[in-house]
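Sample intake sheet
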Amino acid sequence: MQPTISFHQHFLFVQQLAQALSAKITNGILTDALTTSKNELVLLFSIHNKPLIIKVTALFQQGFIQIEDTEYRKGSNAQPCFINLFNKKISHVEMHPANRSFAIHFGIKHQLIFKCYNALINVIEVENNKVVDVFRDAIQKDWQYNADEFYKIDELFLQSLQAIPITQNQFWINKTSTDEFVLNLSSNTQMQIAYTTNALEATNLYARYTLPYLAFNQKKESLIATLQSEIQKLKKQIEQTELAINQLQHNAPYEETGHLLMANLEAITKGVKQIELFDFYTQKNRLIKLKEDLNAAENAAYYYRKAKNKKKEIAELEIKLLAYRTKLNQSQIALEQTMQATTLK
């Protein structure tokens, strides 16, 4: 099944967003610009002496634009950008005729270009057709200004737009059958979450619903992967511990091995790694490993010590085994709860 398309970065919506923004901020002043992370840009404006914020966010392989009439409290992690445009007056906002982008112009020399390119969303400062500064500076292509990118008309593209049903200046936030949120430009049968006739409100609504949803999904998927990995690790630890206990319980008793060595002192020479002796407990020959640096009596003493420690070793392994099984049960319950979770809490 193909994913449902959201129009929040589509040409037909970006065009209407630019028109609404033009009416909102023309003759305003850019008072500050800052990045709070590599994925978030905040532009602060004064519009007729009233504050306005444009926030651009690049997350989850898409871009979000939020526009709010509110004050902004700058954090200690804020880094300035676009400083050449501070206190400059906005002359107009231009929608590019053949591209998912628009520009805020500050007179004839300076502009901020908003590229609404899904995961490659970016904002670049251009002065006299040369790039001066870039929000997401790692996108190397955006350091070069090419007018054709914004102004070259693609007739086939424009014709394809005519086949898309839209209702001008009407916007719907819908929820799909997979619980995703989409911004639509026409009414449809999907679950309606919100409706507005304002493009600025529409972009805000889409971000308000989608960002928490995607953050929740990312957290959920990450936690599921962590728990699944932990469960596999615990299962392996349980298997290895059970094997170790089984070997200790069913191997030839260390005490019997010590007795065999003591009964064959004269047959054992210091420096050998192993010896085959007749086991009078099983009535069969048995290969016994030896410590090369010990004589026969000392090897027997070594096995007597191991016999003494065997019960303690098994008890310690059984404690570990219980801890692993308890943790496995807890992790399996946590995984089930996480997979059923519908909210971050």
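Comment: The chain has a mean pLDDT of 92. The longest helix spans residues 199-250.
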